[in-house]
Design goal:
- It is a single chain.
- By secondary structure, the chain is mainly α.
- The protein has one domain: Up-down Bundle (Ferritin), CATH 1.20.1260.
- The longest helix is centred in the C-terminal third of the chain and has 34 residues.
- About 35% of the residues are buried.
């Protein structure tokens, strides 16, 4: 089993079951050190996301307003949105390990561990969708995270944009969702959703921290100051700072953001 060919096989899997099955067959062998590595293996730029085989992809500008969280339709919509983020994050982590081949084994180890976490997160949310009588692929999705991966084909840009911007924004957004859910009458489903979101946001801190480390490595490789982060993000997402919503200061600190960065990111001081 060769690393890059196998990762390509997992990334392009046409169904949820095949993607997870392929990863679970591969990852223990990788951890045992029996997977070979051919750095000269062909490198693809993927032109469509794997979920396009079973999800209806729409322009994000046409996404309808999510139903209120108090009803089952709103809860399904929330779960489906989170499932889509987690499924997309599986491929983002795998693509990092697949694409950036001159960084070293520690980098591959980190992003395969992230992929394992994202699969576990996805399965938690998928199970809740099933309990609601739904499934991943029932609702429309958009390509925001996939497009981010296609627009960040350099090591520096990827580490800035995906973990340090998009995933870090998730650290801000999830507590706001938790706060809304916590105001609803308690039900077994609400309790399970809250438990799952708490697990996800706690573990995503580590993913952002890994991204922070490798972003700093990328800056050192290119002899750039870490402040280039803001230039990169503004190039891809203009007018991103300060953030328009309250940021999760504690989680961002744990994830490696320094005080000066937080001052530039937050519209209210941490």
């Amino acid at each position: 089993m060769e690393l890059y060919a196998t990762l390509e096989h997992i990334i392009t899997a046409p169904t949820v079951v095949e993607k997870i099955g392929r990863f679970e067959a591969f990852y223990p062998l990788y951890c045992q050190g029996v997977v070979t590595l051919n750095p000269m293996a062909a490198l693809r730029v993927f032109d469509h996301p794997s979920y396009a085989n079973f999800c209806t992809v729409i322009d994000p500008k046409t996404v309808t307003r999510r139903p209120k969280l108090g009803g089952i339709r709103g809860q399904i919509a929330l779960l489906h949105s989170v499932a889509h983020i987690e499924y997309s994050a599986i491929d983002l982590a795998l693509d990092a390990a697949y694409r950036f081949r001159d960084v070293g084994k520690a980098f591959i180890d980190d992003w395969l561990k992230v992929a394992e976490d994202e699969i576990r997160h996805f399965r938690m949310i998928e199970q809740l969708l099933i309990e609601c009588g739904s499934f991943y692929g029932q609702l429309d999705v958009h390509n925001g995270l996939f497009e981010a991966s296609m627009q960040t084909l350099t090591f520096l840009e990827r580490m800035a944009v995906v973990p340090r911007y998009l995933e870090a924004n998730g650290l801000d957004a999830t507590p706001l969702i938790v706060a809304k859910l916590s105001t609803l009458p308690s039900t077994p489903l609400i309790a399970k959703i809250l438990d799952a979101l708490h697990i996800i946001v706690e573990e995503e801190v580590d993913h952002v921290l890994k991204g922070n480390h490798w972003f700093n490595v990328a800056c050192a490789k290119e002899n750039l100051p870490s402040e280039c982060y803001f230039t990169i993000i503004e190039d891809h997402y203009p007018n991103s700072f300060p953030r328009k919503v309250p940021i999760n200061c504690d989680a961002r600190r744990l994830a490696g953001f320094d005080p000066e960065e937080l001052k530039r990111i937050a519209f209210v001081a941490c």
